[in-house]
Amino acid sequence: MKFALAVLSLVAISSAALAQDKPTVESLLKQGYDVVGVIPSNAGPGILLEDDNDDGQARLMMCFVAEIPQSAEITTQYCKPVR
Question: How many other β-carbons are positioned within 10 Å of the β-carbon of residue 36?
């Protein structure tokens, strides 16, 4: 029984940590990314963000957002690196 509780605790902690690590449009903007494009899509509006590394290479991230009528904010659904 103690083992099961320990495993459940680890899963809960891991899930919370993973949720905090997910990039959002807001977190990327705070890291210095700039919005360089916006596109319509079936997944919701797509926002293309770019950041220049210290080595001069640009990093691109594509984020999709959604408007929810019950929310006062537009929320980030997910972000992925563009390679």
Answer: 12
Q: Give per-residue pLDDT as tens, 16-49.
A: 444 568 999 999 999 999 999 999 999 899 999 9
How confident is the model over 1-15, as pLDDT tens digits? 443 333 334 334 434
Query: What does the angle CA 22 – CA 76 – CA 18 come to, to the nearest 5 degrees?
Result: 15
CB-hemisphere CA count at 13 Å for 9?
6
Which segments of the chain does DSSP mark as H helices, in order?
2-21, 25-30
Structural domain boundaries in the chain:
24-82
pTM: 0.69
Q: What residues does 15 pair with on adjacent strands? A: none
What single-letter amino acid sits at 55? Answer: D
